[in-house]
């Protein structure tokens, strides 16, 4: 296992498409500890993919590293859009009952601000789950 002070090594694609050649070039190992439940999840995912656990873990780790990552800007923009959506829906709902006071506006705005980031995280997590199961 690598020490916490060492930098991660750059991982490159194997030069050959031959699995035997790529296995021979793999000389580094990584170890981790899992709970029984976590191990069960990993084994189930590997089985579903038709791979050995070690192959599935390697492929999943490398796919995660190599995939374009959503930036913080994406999550921030999504949170703001969700906040605006919630604000508009609640403003229209309240306005249909009569005039809005400054206090109504403050409460509706504060509520939209309080939930937007959590809702954005939930949506991104759902998207990631759907992508991972494909």
* Secondary structure: number of strands: 0
Shape designation: elongated
Oligomer: single chain
Structural class computed from helices and strand pairing: mainly alpha
Number of domains: 2
Characteristics of this structure?
mainly alpha; NikA-like; 68% helix; 2 domains; single chain; 0% strand; disordered N terminus; 134 residues
Account of the protein in words:
With 134 residues, the chain is an all-alpha fold. It contains 5 helices and no strands. The chain has 2 domains: 30-66, no CATH class; 72-133, no CATH class. The chain is 68% helix and 0% strand. The longest helix is centred in the last third of the chain and has 32 residues, at 102-133. It is elongated, with a radius of gyration of 23 Å. The two termini are 31 Å apart. Residues 1-27 are annotated as: Disordered. InterPro entries: NikA-like.
Short description:
With 134 residues, the protein is mostly helical. It contains 5 helices and no strands.
